[in-house]
Amino acid sequence: MRVMPLIAVGLVVGIGTGWWLFGQRGAAVDIAPVDPASVIAVPGEPARSPSVTPETVSGPSRSSLQVTAAAPTLPVAPVVATPATAPASSGLLLPVQGISPSQLQDTFTDARSEGRVHDAIDIMAAEGTPVLAVADGHVEKLFDSDKGGLTMYQFDPDGVHCYYYAHLQRYADGLVEKKQIKRGEVIGYVGSTGNANPQAPHLHFEVHVLGPEKQWWKGDSINPYPLLTGR
User: Fold this and answer.
1) Which structural domain range is residue 173 located in?
2) Which pTM value belongs to this model?
3) Scanning 119, 139, 190, 214, which has the fewest C-beta atoms within 10 Å of its C-beta?
4) What Cα–Cα distance (Å) separates residue 108 from each residue in 59, 116, 120, 225?
5) What's the gap between Cα 8 and its chain centre?
6) What angle do CA 192, 114, 227 make, to 5 degrees?
7) Which tens digits make up the pLDDT trace of 155-194?
8) DSSP state of 113
9) pLDDT tens-place string over residues 105-142
10) How far is Cα 225 from Cα 198, in angstroms, rounded to an integer?
11) Domain contains 16
């Protein structure tokens, strides 16, 4: 008889519990769904973090940062005029009429007989070709020597240089010692007097720097070739 009251109590308790559970279900809080892929890591693949859009920071445009720098001003090199030929700087005229500087040969250091050095240049030309004064000056000495034949020594106006012309065929008419002569004036004619080869007439031409004594037969020889050619 006691079993029936226990069954009745169990039914009442079961019905009450069910009723209470039903009421709690209606008051449940909604939860936003979650993407499983963002929570569950896949083996062998790094977990993805939620994407974040960076905030755009405004700044000065590229064109506003560009600065135009003025090109530096470079100094202009002065123009230096170069003389066309040595005669323009030395003032010396080529002493044989009709001969150009390109026809000259530098024989200044050539050996000569008796162990001598030439100390001059030979300007080849036909016999009788006019010989011209290389500069203004005066006739210091007319001399007939064994080696040089008919020669002339000319001093420049300052008495610094002596110009020596040798192997002349003859002197120009009226040429005498102490006569003043001008650059380009005919002083004689090409020949082969002295020890020159008659088959090769030429003018032997020297330039000397005079000593303090101003002696026509003594001086320091300088090479006429660069003075006449600019080389």
Assistant:
1) 86-220
2) 0.61
3) 214
4) 82, 11, 5, 8
5) 125
6) 60
7) 999 999 999 999 999 999 999 999 999 999 999 999 999 9
8) G
9) 998 888 766 667 778 999 999 999 999 999 999 999 99
10) 24
11) no
113 located within any domain: yes
Give per-residue burial for 55-79: e unless 16+ CB within 10 Å, then b. Answer: eeeeeeeeeeeeeeeeeeeeeeeee
Spatial distance between the Cα atoms of 176 and 231, rounded to a whole number of angstroms: 34
- Cα separation, 226 vs 231, whole angstroms: 5
Give the tokens for residue 44. Answer: 């062998």
Q: In 16-65, at which residue ranges do the beta strands (DSSP E only) sit?
A: none
Q: Does the residue 30 lie in any domain?
A: no
CATH code of 144's domain? 2.70.70.10
The torsion defined by the Cα of 15, 21, 26 and 27, in degrees rounded to 10, comes to: 140
42 in any annotated domain? no
